[in-house]
Write a structure and sequence with these properties.
The two termini are about 20 Å apart. It contains three helices and six strands; from the N terminus they run αβαβαββββ. The chain is an alpha+beta fold and about 90 residues long.
Length: about 90
C-alpha cells in the first residue's frame, strides 16, 4: 500500500473526500494533517489565506501536502494556521 505522500498528483486526484468522517485540525498541527493524509483520511484544515495558499487554491493541489484541496469556508476565525498566524479559511484535503 502506498502512503499518500508517495502517490502521484494523478493518483491523489482519485481519492474521494469523506467530509462526514473527516479529521478537523484547527490548532496548526501540520504533523497531524500529514499523518491523517498519509493514512488516506480526509482532513479539514484551518489555514491563513496568504499568497501561497491562494496559489494552491487556484491550482487545487498542494505540493506541500501532496493532496488536492478545496475551500470549504472563508472569513471566520477558524483557529491557527500551520504557519502560526490566525486561520481565516477552512479547506478540505
Amino acid at each position: 500500500m502506498k502512503l499518500l505522500l508517495e502517490k502521484t498528483k494523478e493518483e491523489v486526484n482519485y481519492m474521494p473526500k469523506n467530509l462526514e468522517n473527516a479529521i478537523k485540525v484547527t490548532d496548526g498541527n501540520m504533523q497531524k494533517v500529514m499523518d491523517a493524509l498519509s493514512e488516506g483520511k480526509t482532513v479539514i484544515c484551518a489555514l491563513e489565506k496568504g499568497p501561497m495558499v491562494e496559489q494552491t487554491l487556484a491550482s487545487g493541489f498542494s505540493e506541500y501536502m501532496n493532496a488536492h484541496y478545496e475551500l470549504l469556508e472563508e472569513g471566520g476565525d477558524y483557529g491557527v494556521c500551520g504557519c502560526g498566524k490566525p486561520a481565516n479559511i477552512l479547506v478540505a484535503a
